[in-house]
Amino acid sequence: MKAPLDTASRTADLGQSPIQEFSAGMSPAARRNFAAIDIRDGLALWRLAWSLGWMDIRLRYRGSVLGPFWLTISTATMVAALGLLYSRLFNMELRDYLPFLALSQVLWTFLATLVGDSGTVFTDAEAVIRSVRLPFFLFAARILVRNVLVLGHNIVVVAAVFALLGVWPGARALEILPALPLWIVDALALALLLGGHAPLSVWAGALGFSAILCATSWIFFARARARIAFWV
Amino acid sequence: MTSGASIAVEDVSLLFPLYHGNGRSLKRLLLAAASGRLAEDQRRRVVVRALSDIDFRLQGGERLGLIGSNGAGKTTLLRVLAGIYEPAKGRVRVEGTLNALLDPSLGMNHLLTGRENIVLRGLYAGLPRARLARLEEEVVAFAELSEFIDLPVRIYSAGMMVRLGFALATAIRPRILLMDEWFLAGDSAFLEKARRRVEEMVLSADILVLSTHDNETIRRWCTRVLWLEQGRIVADGPPDEVLARYEAATAVPNGT
User: Which structural domain, as residue segments, surrounds residue B237?
Assistant: First the structure.
C-alpha cells in the first residue's frame, strides 16, 4: 500500500479558489458577476473541455479501425455522390460545382450540428451538473471542441476537392482566418443561449450579429445560470 | 495545521422549482398571454420548499452529522454546501477546498478504460498535469484491478466497479469533505482496507459533513449533529443529546 500523502499536498489538491460564496436570489449586478466568474473559470478548464470533446468523438468510433476518419469518408462519399448527381441534373460543370458543394456541405453540417447540440448542452451533462459544481461554460466549450474537431476531419474533403480539381480560391481565402474566431465566439454564445444562428455574409453584419448574439446570450445566461442545476 | 476552513450558512431557504411535469412551457405561456391570464399562470408555478431558514456555522475541526427521515433535505443541504444548488434566499460562504462525495460514479464513462477514467476525474477536479500522474498511480495501487485497469469499465464486475469508484473518490483529499450515505452503505462488501481509508480521509479533513441513517457512525465520527425534518432544523447540538431525542422520536411505540 502506498504511503499516505503529506497534508500540504492533500490540501493543495483541488484547484478551487479558497473562498467561495454560493448565494443567489441576487441583484442583477451579482448575477452578472457570477456569470462572469463562470466564464472565466470555464476558460481556465480548457484542458478538460478539450479532453471531453475529444473523448466524445473517440467514443463514437471506438472499436472501429478507421476511427474518426469515418467522418472524412462519409463526407467524401456524400459530396461525391451529390456532386455527380446534381451536376448532371442541373447541367452544371462539375469543376465549378463540386468545390462549391463541398465547402457548403461541410460548413452547413458544422452549423446544423452545432445548433442541434446546443439544445441539449446542459441536459446531456445532467449527472455531472448534479454532483459537482463546475462552470456551465465548460459544457458549452465541450460542444464547441467536439464540433470543431469534426469540422477538422471534414475540411480535409474540401481541401482534397480543391486540390484534385486544381481550383484555388485565391488570396480571398485568407479572409477565413479572422472569420473563424468569430464563428467560435458565436458558437460558444449559441451553446449558452440554446438559440439559433445565421450565415456569415458581410463583415459588418457578421460583427453586428455576433455582438447581438453574445449580448443576448450574456443576458440570458446571467439571468438563468443559477437555475440550470434545478432544471436539468 | 493552519485550520482556516469554515462554512457559514446564513438563513438559507431553497425553493425547488419543478420545471418539468406540468411546470411552465412556451405554449402554455403564449396561450395564457393570449387569454390574458399570464399573471395567474406565473403564480401557479409548481415549487417545492426543500429547505427553510437553515442557519449554522462550522469551524475547522467540526464534524457535522445530518440526520432525519427520507426527504428531510439532507442531500439537498449537501448539494447547497457544494454549490450545486444556489439558494434563492440567504447566503452560503465556504472557505477551503471542498470535495463532495454525492455520486459514486461521478463523471465515470463506461466506455473508457479504468485508467482513462482516472485521468478524466483528475481533470474534473482541476488537478495540474503533474498531479494527474500521481493520482493515476495511487488509484491503480489502491483499486488492485491488475490488467483490468486498461480495459473498458463496461466489462467490470460490480465488485470491481465499487473498488474503482471508491479509490477514485477517496484519492482527492479536500479540507472540507461532504459525504452522502452511499459511501458507507454495504459495509460488509467493503474490505477492511476501504474502511481504514474512509477513516483516514475523515480524520484528515478539517470539516466533515456527513449524511447518514446510521447513528453508530455519527457517534463514532461526529462532534455535532443537525436534525432536519421537512427542510427545517429540528435540533442542533452534541451527538448524544440530539441522537437521544431523535431515537426517542423515531422509536417504534410497542418497543420491538
Answer: 6-36+49-250
